[in-house]
């Protein structure tokens, strides 16, 4: 059998999807794809592996020798890759659509603000990556977790479009390592009680590969509700609702029995921001967290070891996929992507196990790519994000067109907020020389934060409602910054050049009130940097399409500002300091409600035109 296009997606609980095109077409082939040519002028296969909640900063990749051998040593690691919303479903929707969460309006894991029902209601079942790939002539396959709130009750209303073959993990059993439920194609759901879910998923992924050519280390979540109440699995409690402890139970991830003995002495890396004793970090609820007790720390070390143990099954899955691609003679013509939906923290900033924050642990995530022309054993410094992955795959598939003009037209047609990632050594060098690639990541979050660990202390809680913020992460020549504005009005600014663990908020009220903020930053007065970051975030928090990729051009259409260095020119001081609106919220909400989001760039932004201030609202 011969294929020329594939994409496999696997998730920590693991998901897996496979896009295939071949001369023998058991599941139907539409047309010959126009994808990027590979050796021998064959069209590329694309295999995509997506884990769930995998960290980069807690060193999980150091414990995955097969992924190192099969992917990192044979491809390029992108060390500055970011998710844009640090929670499963919004991150996955952004990945599959190439759009920021404020443009998908999928901002939670469950209705009314997120989950599969929100994805469907927003019209994305007809407009996301697998549908576009099929339109380009690709056959597409998937196994594993796709979205939250995809349940044993709603899997067929409607069926998910875009897949020639599928075998989906369904709620409320998505995160049950020993009680998974899968639903294949148009068949009824099937329970795999007592079988290890990652092994079940691996066999399904291998079968797709063999016929047509992961999910750990998420916490183990067991529903305390019947299957008919599957939608309640991710329901967030309010004062009128049941406590979350009555809905589900949380335990550390459960590894396969063959891995349960590994890493007995490993502990969470003891970095300076691990459970700091001198003072709390961050703002809002994070700044109120108590120091974790010795008992608490010991449990979290166990939680960490269980994550590493469960990842061993993913390590084996990836090696199995590579072996099968090689066996079928497809490996040289195949691009293999490996990433995760969001990162994870355990103990940093006194946080219990979880995600949903803007700290590096939660948003800076693994991305490894191998394939034709991709440099082996390389580490790339370019800034990339999840909204860049859909345009990257579409470009490989030939779905964006054959030149820059065609690419731009297709980007507008698909309404993409990202741009294709440079994959080959030549493309990376060109991106470096031209300096045209974006240096920023838009980070946004609405609603709750949730602890997935054990509760310690009589006043302990696992649920916080005030976790709505907008942020920009910007990495350029000589600067490495994170700036955020919360719905509470609190602000954060971290200089990761001098404070890599984000312990010193330069905009903390204590610093501002005492006058202890730095007098300068990046060689200019401190406040000059702050107002420019705020204006950049003002554009990004409501951007669409090209504006998300080139936000400085929205502020300076004359093209005379391409990065933060350019924007710091003193000739723009009045524009930034006096004439720009500031990022602010009208109120805190659980999801994306425009009326609560404060002034928007499209309706309240001042811009330059041809180097001169344009004195009207746009």
From TrEMBL:
CDD domains: G6S (cd16147)
Domain Sulfatase N-terminal: residue ranges: 44-399
EC number: 3.1.6.1
GO biological process, one term: phenol-containing compound metabolic process
Residue positions, PTM 3-oxoalanine (Cys): 88
Molecular function (Gene Ontology), one example: glycosaminoglycan binding
Family label: Belongs to the sulfatase family.
Name by which UniProt lists this protein: Arylsulfatase
């Amino acid at each position: 059998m011969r294929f020329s296009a594939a994409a496999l997606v696997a998730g920590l609980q693991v998901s897996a999807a496979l896009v295939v095109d071949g001369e023998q077409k058991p599941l139907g082939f539409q047309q010959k794809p126009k994808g990027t040519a590979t050796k021998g002028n064959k069209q590329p296969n694309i295999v995509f592996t997506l884990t769930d909640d995998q960290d980069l900063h807690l060193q999980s990749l150091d414990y995955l020798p097969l992924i190192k051998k099969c992917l990192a040593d044979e491809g390029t690691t992108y060390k500055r890759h970011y998710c844009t919303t640090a929670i499963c479903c919004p991150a996955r929707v952004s990945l599959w659509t190439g759009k920021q969460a404020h443009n998908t309006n999928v901002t939670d894991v469950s209705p009314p603000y997120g989950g599969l029902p929100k994805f469907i209601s927003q019209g994305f079942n007809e407009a996301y990556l697998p549908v576009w790939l099929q339109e380009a002539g690709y056959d597409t396959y998937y196994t594993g977790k796709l979205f939250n709130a995809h349940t044993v009750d709603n899997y067929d209303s409607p069926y998910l479009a875009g897949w020639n073959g599928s075998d989906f993990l369904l709620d409320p059993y998505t995160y049950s390592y020993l009680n998974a439920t899968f639903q294949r194609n148009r068949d009824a759901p099937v329970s795999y009680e007592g079988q290890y879910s990652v092994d079940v998923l691996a066999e399904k992924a291998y079968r797709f590969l063999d016929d047509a050519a992961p999910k750990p280390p998420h916490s183990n979540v067991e529903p305390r509700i019947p299957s008919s109440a599957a939608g309640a699995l991710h329901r967030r409690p309010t004062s009128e609702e049941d406590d979350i402890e009555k809905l589900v139970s949380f335990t550390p991830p459960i590894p396969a029995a063959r891995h349960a003995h590994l890493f007995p002495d490993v502990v969470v890396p003891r970095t300076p921001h691990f459970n700091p004793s001198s003072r709390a970090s961050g703002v809002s609820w994070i700044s109120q967290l108590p120091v974790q007790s010795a008992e608490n720390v010991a449990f979290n070390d166990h939680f960490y070891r269980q994550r590493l143990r469960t990842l061993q099954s993913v390590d084996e899955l990836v090696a199995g996929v590579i072996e099968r691609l090689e066996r079928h003679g497809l490996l040289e013509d195949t691009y293999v992507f490996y990433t995760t939906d969001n990162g994870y923290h355990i103990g940093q900033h006194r946080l219990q196990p979880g995600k949903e924050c803007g700290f590096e642990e939660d948003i800076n995530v693994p991305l490894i790519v191998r394939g034709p022309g991709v440099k082996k054993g390389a580490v790339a410094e370019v800034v990339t994000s999840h909204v860049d992955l859909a345009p990257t795959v579409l470009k490989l598939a030939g779905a964006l067109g054959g030149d820059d003009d065609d690419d731009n037209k297709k980007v507008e047609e698909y309404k993409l907020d990202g741009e294709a990632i440079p994959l080959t050594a030549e493309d990376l060098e060109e991106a470096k020389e031209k300096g045209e690639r974006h240096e920023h990541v838009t980070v946004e979050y609405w609603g709750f934060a949730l602890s997935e660990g054990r509760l310690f202390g009589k006043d302990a809680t696992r649920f916080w409602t005030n976790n709505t913020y907008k942020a920009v992460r910007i990495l350029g020549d000589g600067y490495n910054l994170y700036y955020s504005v919360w719905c509470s009005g609190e602000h954060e600014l971290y200089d990761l050049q001098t404070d890599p663990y984000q312990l010193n908020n330069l905009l903390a009220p204590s610093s501002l009130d005492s006058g202890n903020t730095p007098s300068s930053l990046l060689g200019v007065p401190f406040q000059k940097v702050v107002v420019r970051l705020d204006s950049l975030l003002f554009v990004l928090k409501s951007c669409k399409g090209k504006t998300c990729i080139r936000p400085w051009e929205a502020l300076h259409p004359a093209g005379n500002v391409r990065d933060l260095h350019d924007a710091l020119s003193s000739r723009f001081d009045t524009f930034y300091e006096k004439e720009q609106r500031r990022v602010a919220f009208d109120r805190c909400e659980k999801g994306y409600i425009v009326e609560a989001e404060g002034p928007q760039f499209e309706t309240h932004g001042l811009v330059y035109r041809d180097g001169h201030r344009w004195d009207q609202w746009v």
